[in-house]
Each structure stands twice: as C-alpha cells, then as structure tokens.
Amino acid sequence: MRQIGTSDLVVPPLGLGLMRLDPAEAESRRVLAAALERGIVLWDTADLYFYGRSETWIGRVLKALAPEERRRVVVVTKGGNRFTPGEEGWTWTPDPAYIREAARASARRLGVETIDLYLLHGGTLADPIDALVEGLEGLVREGTIRHYGLSSIRPAVVCRALERGRFVAVMSAYGPLDRRPEREILPCVRARGASLIARGVLAKGLLGRDGPQRIAALEAAGAHGYPREALLELYRQLEAIARETGDPEGSVARLAYRFVLAEGAVAVALIGARTVVQFEEAAGVLDLPPLPPEAVARIRNLTRVDDYTVRG
C-alpha cells in the first residue's frame, strides 16, 4: 500500500484508468469487476470521459457495492474542461466558479458526498492559480472534495501549482518510453511531498503484449524518439530483463509497470486496459517482486529522457 502525498489516502500501487472504458460495453463492466476482485480499488475517471457518462456509470457501481466494498474504493475524478453533453469538443476553463460547479456536478453524477481526490484536468501559466487554489480549498471546506491535485504534462504549470497550493498528487504520463517527468516534474513532486500518479505507462500499447505488431506498423521514423527498428530491439531487450527478474512470461507490460513503481515518488500507476486480458496481464505485477535496482539501472541505460516541448 502507498500513501498519496501528504493525504490520508492509502491505496494499492496499481489503479484503474477509465478513459478508454465505454460504459455501454459489457467488456468495460467485466474489467471493472476484475479490478474490484483484484483489490485494485483506486478508480480514475473525469467529467470529460464520455461526457459525464463515465462518472454516472461509476456512481451506479458504487451504489450497488456492499458497504465494506464501497469503503475500499478511492474515487479520483477530474474537471475544468467545459463541454456540452452530446456535442464534440471541450474548452479548458480555469474559472474558479466554473470549477466549483463542475466538481459539485461530478459528485452528483458519482453519487457521493465527497470526492476522494479531485484533479484539475489541465492548466497553463496564464491560469489564475491563486484564485483556483482558493476555490479548491473552498470545495474542501464544504465537503465536496477531500483532497485535490493536478493532471498535466507541463513542468512549469506543475511546479507553480505545487508551490502555491496543497496539491497532493500530480497525474502525468510516465513509463520506460516517456521518462520526461524525470527532468522537472518528479523533482518538484518530491520537493513538495506530493505523489505522481502515472498514466500512459505502456505508451499507447507499444509496450503491451502486441507491442511488436504495433511497432512494426509504425513508419520507419518510429515513435518517442526511437526509430522503428530500434524500438523492436528495445522490446526484445526488455523481454529479456523481465524474464531475468522473475517474470517467466517475459511480459514487457508488467516490466514497464514495475519500472514505474520503482520510482519512490510514484504512488499509483494506472492500468488503462480496454479488455480483461489486457487488465489481467498488467495486474499480474502484484504477483511479482519489485524490480531490483540493477534492473532499473539497465532500463534507464537502454532508454532516453527527453524534454517537454511545451513547459507552460
């Protein structure tokens, strides 16, 4: 179990990301049931996911749980993007009054009095950060949210927010193919006693079970700064490390999660699976030992750390 920042939220190291789980699909419901059975009880959604329908779905699931099960679930949701249900597109709206109403609407859809962790779903340096923090603190005082954080890949935005408010968590893409947070975001997170919630660990499936097929379908230039052939070779090297460190199947997906969880500032790594098969492969991390420091060092030597093209 891991503590999220300075909060009183203590959760398993894996969480479930709901962005790709369509509430209308039976397989999505099976994934959520598998997560509950596995004890993966931090569920991350957003008002933007399926334009409110993801939160409504989670609300129904929570209502149906037995009281003991319900107490185990930690609900994370995000807001700040104005949208109209039934219409495509959204607009980042860093207005404290709008975010206050958005958080209250999320709580209603989720069927909860208090959202465990509420994240601003974006941000720029032009945002009125002090007014936003004041608004978030107001939501804490009124009991709509328990703690707050930020979902962003912009280092300057993240570091400023952490300096100005009681943000307990930052959600950002992090994995072997995207180590950009190591440059600036992770140092800021550590300095402020916050935690990172890692998403995008498998780099849109490139490190998943069918990673070689996905990589082979890329243009020669590849992805994430690696040419296609270099990515294929890297995948093979990661498979070998996985087997050498206690995973008999040599799962690169599980190795990626183990790599992320070896970073002390990471509280939770989100599983973004769309199918039960994908989910179960990732969840198998819970059955494996932590990645040894020497293996972490080998992965670091094989991979690169790039800078963000947009800092604020």
Describe the overall structure.
The structure is a single chain. The strands form three sheets. Strands 3-4-5-8-9-10-11-12 form an eight-stranded parallel β-barrel, surrounded by six helices. The chain has twelve helices and twelve strands. A hairpin with a 6-residue loop joins strand 1 and strand 2 (10-11). The longest helix is centred in the last third of the chain and has 17 residues, at 228-244. It has a single domain (2-204, 257-290), classed as TIM Barrel. The chain has 312 residues and is an alpha/beta fold. The model has no long low-confidence stretch (mean pLDDT 96). The chain is globular and about 50 Å long. Helix content is 41%, strand content 17%.
